[in-house]
Amino acid sequence: MWVGGITNGKVPVFSSAPGSSFQAKPERGRGLSGLDIEKRVAGLTVTVGTQMLAAVLILALKKMMKPTNWFIPGLLVLLLANQPTANVAAATTPKPAAKPAATAPPAKSVRRQPISRDPWLGAIVLDAATGKVLYEDQADAKGYPASVLKLMDLLIILEKIEQKQLSLEDQVPVSAKASHTGGSRVWLADKESFTVDEMLYALMIQSANDVAVALAEKVAGSTDAFVELMNQRAKELGMNSTVFHSVHGLPPGKGQENDVTTARDLAILCHQLLKHPETLRYTATRERPFRPNVAGKTVIMRTHNHLLGHVEGCDGLKTGYITASGFSIAVTAARHGQRVIAIVFDSATLKVRDAKAAELLAKGFAAWPAAGSGNAALVIQPPAVPVAAKKK
Question: Residue 52, CB half-sphere, CA atoms under 13 Å: how many?
Answer without folding.
Answer: 8
